[in-house]
Write a structure and sequence with these properties.
The complex is a heterodimer of chains A (381) and B (370).
Chain A lengths: L1 H28 L2 H20 L7 E7 L4 H11 L4 E4 L4 H9 L5 E5 L3 H5 L5 E8 L3 H25 L8 E8 L7 H31 L1 H6 L5 H29 L9 H26 L2 H18 L12 H7 L3 H15 L3 H30 L1
Parallel strand pairs in A: 1-2, 1-3
Antiparallel strand pairs in A: 3-4
Chain B lengths: L1 H16 L2 H21 L7 E7 L4 H12 L3 E6 L6 H6 L5 E5 L3 H6 L4 E8 L3 H25 L7 E8 L7 H22 L1 H8 L1 H7 L4 H30 L8 H25 L3 H17 L12 H6 L4 H14 L8 H27 L1
Parallel strand pairs in B: 1-2, 1-3
Antiparallel strand pairs in B: 3-4
Helix pairs in contact in B: 1-10, 2-7, 2-10, 7-10, 7-11, 7-12, 7-14, 10-11, 10-15, 11-12, 11-14, 11-15, 14-15
The chains are: A alpha/beta (381), B alpha/beta (370).
């Protein structure tokens, strides 16, 4: 019994090795997969790393001063000194409103003619601020920056009158893991997850669907090769290619985009491997299910890229989504990987977060790969 | 010629909708996507989990913390009793922020100074951190105004009175959902057209077509019209969902919306056909599709503003039809955008479409004669 199993194990190993060799030859002969694995991450990360940012800087803002006084001048100075604003100075409100309507400015700050007089009265002067709320997030960031500039001005103004500015409660905000609050630090790791999801799906979805479509899969399956061995033979070479692409992405994140890598490389490698298995498993499953490249392509795009983009926490924080959506997002591998990458890059090796997410990825990988195996076997019957 | 064109159109329709799997891939996902993604895609924070580390026994600290408890934006998760407990709470993502009131808080206020409150925020998602910090600041500023008056301290010499136009409650859903109209139609139309020729090539039916008297222009028309109709139906469905289901206002008129939509469809189908005419295999077609759709979505302004990109990238995105259509969508939905406002968006889409269509026609002819 033992001897038989050994012999069988040896045969299996040989068959898998043969399949891997065949797949490698195929990859080398048609270098498009190598281009997908290495060229695409580099190109897309370069493009998106620079193109995707939530840091609002130099936002065009109109400042309308009805009566130019010293106080108003100092207020303008506080806004002008900030790197967040690109200050425009229309003379009247109608002019400013026209600028807002045609999109030249994204906000208006209006100091009325009684501004100086009312700053000395109790209650203070109201400063009218109008924001273009179309992009709510940007409007909110702009509001925050305006508040910051306003606070500076208040302190300055009171100091010039010989009074210290002492609000009863003063907040000190500390943003951990990303003290400069650079959006790139969290967007670039998220992009790595999206790009790797794409590549995992593309590599397998295409290749396996093609074999089904051309009928070569059936041809392989009538040989003594088992389904498990066949899938393994497909998986291993693409797994290696995927890891290579990942290496390119991580290197670029650190050296091109200056994202700190606070966790250890070993943990990054282990968690990424589990993720790759899930991503490739998803691709295998899609191609086994559809067996048609055309449909496989559509499904790959709809079931991998868009969820990885929107349901992963890459830009949109899932914590704010309704529970039903959070539930759906549990099936999206990229979601766990985004969380892993945010933590490994910015926070370091936090065992609990990393283990929970890696475990979830492992479960997904087992489900995807198991289903592919089951469905491939069924198809033969 | 018209007879041939209508026959082509009919054939394309059939090949798209006859196969139940392909029909599912075209018709079902868009609506599911719109619903799921529209709920997921928000920048607004809700129920932000926080913990409190209060070392002060005074009443003011309690009052301040009660403000946070009463806010729907924040969700109280627990009390921290010592410094060392803060790190794991934030590290393990149990809370997004910890509010720390040091022991000398009340004393500082009583002696006429400012009581310091420390807010420690998980910055892994810097945007969430910034928005949460802004919410905290808003609560404290409001609290200060009341307290300052009670303590007889003068208020600040001026206050900001902020209003938002076009989206008074700053709901990011109003910004994202109109974009879905473009996102969904872009994905469908490009998929449908970009792989159509390579699919026929692999099935061998394209060479059948080549021996018939059908001309490249007719092939293009035959492939454009069905994709355009599918796009129109889909976009209309999404507009309805946006207005009826999500309650996004549709303030402008439908004319600029549909002129924009037609040009957007024209250009995205053009890109799809160009990919189709270049690709000789499905694999190349698919690769081309991904390499167009993914950047077209990520660099469109759909989720992150175009204004934040480096100059060079902003220029490159001028060739992206989705970028222009987004401006029209948001303009028509949230502002009362008029037709004339959008000429700057209309002509780039028309140009992209025209160039791609001509290129596709030439390549078809080239391949046909070759």
């Amino acid at each position: 019994m033992t001897a038989r199993r050994d012999a069988d194990g040896g045969g299996s190993r040989m068959r898998v090795a043969g399949l891997v060799r065949k797949e490698c030859w195929q990859i080398v002969r048609d270098p498009s997969s190598i281009a997908i694995a290495f060229g695409m991450p580099a190109l897309l990360l370069l493009l998106f790393g620079f193109g995707v940012s939530l840091d609002a800087e130099n936002v065009p803002v109109a400042l309308v001063v009805d009566e130019p006084t010293a106080q108003a001048g100092r207020f303008a100075g506080a806004l002008d000194g900030s790197r967040y604003f690109d200050l425009r100075r229309p003379v009247t409100m109608p002019e400013a409103i026209a600028m807002m309507e045609d999109g030249t400015v994204e906000g208006i700050v209006h100091l009325r003619d009684d501004f100086s007089a009312r700053t000395r009265r109790p209650g203070g002067a109201p400063v009218q601020v109008i924001l273009n709320g179309t992009d709510a997030n940007r409007a909110r960031l702009l509001q925050g920056y305006l508040q910051g500039a306003w606070q500076l001005w208040v302190a300055d103004e009171l100091r010039s009158r010989g009074r210290a500015f002492r609000p009863p409660v003063a907040i000190e905000t500390q943003v951990w893991f990303n003290p400069e609050v650079r959006s790139r630090n969290f967007l670039v790791p998220g992009l790595v997850a999206i790009i790797m999801t794409l590549i995992g799906a593309l590599l397998t979805a295409l290749v396996v669907a093609r074999e089904w479509q051309r009928g070569t899969m059936e041809a392989l399956l009538v040989t003594p090769v088992r389904v498990r061995e066949l899938l393994l033979g497909k998986l291993l070479p693409y797994f290696a290619l995927g890891l290579g692409g990942l290496g390119v992405s991580v290197a670029m994140a650190v050296w091109v985009f200056d994202v700190p890598l606070r966790g250890s490389l070993g943990i990054l490698l282990v968690t990424s491997s589990v993720f790759l298995l899930a991503a490739l498993g998803m691709g295998l499953l899609i191609s086994t299910l559809t067996k048609d490249q055309f449909v496989a392509a559509q499904v790959a795009l709809l079931a991998t890229f868009l969820p990885a983009f929107i349901l992963s926490g890459f830009v949109f924080d899932l914590a704010s989504a309704p529970w039903a959506i959070r539930l759906i997002s549990r099936a999206v591998a990229a979601r766990y990987y985004v969380s892993i990458l945010h933590t490994v890059f910015l926070a370091g090796d936090v065992p609990r977060v990393l283990m929970a997410n890696t475990l979830a990825l492992a479960v997904l990988a087992v489900i995807f790969l198991g289903l592919s195996r089951l469905l491939s076997r069924k198809r033969l019957e | 010629m018209w007879q041939r064109v209508t026959a082509m159109i009919w054939k394309e329709f059939l090949s798209l909708l006859k196969d139940p799997k392909s029909r599912m891939a075209i018709l079902a996902p868009p609506l599911v996507q719109v619903l799921v993604f529209s709920y997921a895609a928000t920048y607004d924070l809700d129920q932000v989990p926080y913990a409190v580390f209060n070392e002060d026994r005074g009443r003011i600290a309690r009052d301040l913390l009660a403000r946070f408890r009463g806010s729907p934006t924040f969700r109280f998760t627990g009390i921290v009793t010592h410094d060392e407990a803060i790190d794991p709470l934030i590290d393990n993502e149990r809370v997004l922020l910890v509010i720390h009131v040091p022991p000398d808080f009340s004393r500082d206020i009583d002696t006429g100074g400012s009581g310091r409150v420390q807010v420690l925020i998980d910055g892994r998602n810097s945007n969430t951190a910034l928005i949460a910090a802004n919410y905290v600041r808003a609560i404290v500023t409001d609290f200060n105004a009341g307290l300052g008056e009670r303590l007889g301290r003068g208020g600040p010499p001026a206050e900001l009175v902020t209003r938002s136009w076009y989206n008074p409650n700053l709901e990011s859903r109003w910004f994202i959902v109109p974009g879905m109209v473009g996102l969904v139609t872009l994905v469908t139309t490009v998929l449908v057209t970009a792989l159509s020729v390579s699919r026929e090539r692999e099935q061998g039916t394209f060479s059948h077509l080549q021996v018939t008297p059908v001309r490249p222009l007719e092939v293009i028309l035959g492939k454009t019209v069905p994709a355009m109709l599918i796009g129109l139906v889909e976009a209309t469905a999404v507009v309805l969902v946006a207005v009826v289901w999500f309650g996004v206002p549709l303030k402008g008129s439908l004319l600029p919306l549909y002129v924009g939509l037609m040009l957007f469809l024209f250009s995205s189908i053009g890109v799809g056909l160009m990919i189709s005419s270049i690709a000789t295999t499905m694999q190349q077609g698919l690769l081309g599709t991904f390499l167009f759709i993914v950047p077209a979505i990520i660099l469109s302004g759909f989720s992150t503003p175009v204004e934040n990109m480096p100059r060079v990238l902003q220029w490159i995105t001028l060739a992206n039809p989705f970028r222009h259509f987004l401006v029209i969508l948001r303009g028509v939905f949230l502002r009362t955008g008029r037709l004339g406002e959008f000429t700057g968006q209309f002509w780039p889409m028309a140009l992209v479409g025209l160039i791609c269509m001509i290129a596709a026609g030439r390549l078809f002819r080239h391949r046909t004669s070759g």
